[in-house]
Write a structure and sequence with these properties.
Structural class: mainly alpha
Strand order of the largest sheet: 1-2
Order of helices and strands: HHHEHHHHEHHHHH
Mean pLDDT: 84
Number of strands: 2
Shape: flat
Strand content: under 5%
Length: about 280
């Protein structure tokens, strides 16, 4: 049966098309999650549990940096963290294994997820719009993976270092449940990954006319406040950590302004060219 043109598709046809894209996404996540489940021991020992060890590169770097500035009494140079991770329920470790595999599957399948979403929305775009957005899948995937790595190597170790060493009383021992620990790893990595998609979001908002460079510049001060609030939410409440997290987000915001300006300039050139063509004809 011949495929329908996007303009001929009814609302139910679009829903059916979306359903098949979502099914493919689900299958991709399941397949990647299955691979992650098989290599669960490696993932837990070498990825999930690595940030709780002082051999983690971020702690080594911050320890060397602190020593360079003459700060010897720092938690980044301690022998080990004053907490243990334990399981408190019968199915706790199995649940942790399953859900870690699911989220790992999502991260691994992210380029394919973007590919499927792109194939759903691209038929409704004009040819020139599809051409100008050709690198969408690659760029958005790269930004997402960079964000996940930023969350893993920056946000997570800063959070663990602060929270593990925070103690309101010597009578209280830190015995962290595995679900709480993995929740910190998961939320920090995924949140950073999605935050790093900001330039892509701004690109499409500019394409549809909802955002302009002038608007982004006008509300830059408000964006600064929102960035600081966001960094305060996803990091421990100390100034140094918030600044470390806020800097790349602010850079992304500035990059988004340049991207928005490029999109607007291209649209203006196109409009001017069409106007000239109309006058000549």
């Amino acid at each position: 049966m011949a495929s329908k043109n996007v303009n001929e598709m009814s609302f139910l046809d679009h829903l059916e098309d979306l359903r098949w894209h979502l099914i493919r996404i689900f299958i991709a996540i399941v397949l990647c999650g299955t691979v992650a489940f098989i290599f669960g021991t490696f993932i837990f020992d070498n990825i999930i549990m690595w940030p709780k060890k002082m051999s983690f590169p971020t702690y080594q770097w911050l320890c060397n940096l602190s020593t360079f500035f003459g700060i010897n009494d720092t938690t980044f140079c301690q022998a080990e963290f004053p907490f243990i991770i334990q399981n408190r329920t019968m199915a706790g470790q199995f649940s942790a294994h399953i859900w870690t595999s699911v989220y790992s599957g999502f991260i691994l399948a992210f380029p394919y997820i973007i590919y499927q979403l792109w194939h759903f929305i691209s038929p409704g775009m004009k040819d020139n719009e599809r051409k100008s957005s050709r690198g969408f899948i690659i760029i958005s995937s790269i930004l997402f993976f960079i964000g996940v790595l930023f969350g893993y190597f920056i946000i997570i170790p800063l959070s663990i270092n602060f929270l593990a060493n925070y103690n309101v009383s010597a009578e209280i021992l830190n015995e962290i449940d595995i679900s709480s620990y993995i929740s910190l790893i998961r939320s920090s990595s995924l949140a950073a990954g999605f935050v790093f998609e900001l330039p892509i979001v701004i690109f499409f908002l500019t394409k549809v006319g909802l955002v302009t460079p002038e608007i982004l510049k006008k509300y830059r001060k408000f964006a600064l406040v929102l960035v600081l609030i966001l960094s305060a939410i996803i990091t421990p409440p100390d100034i140094a950590s918030q600044i470390i997290v806020a800097i790349p987000i602010l850079i992304l915001y500035q990059v988004s302004i340049y991207i928005s300006r490029i999109v607007v300039n291209k649209q203006k050139k196109k409009e001017n060219k069409e106007t000239k063509d109309v006058r000549v004809s």
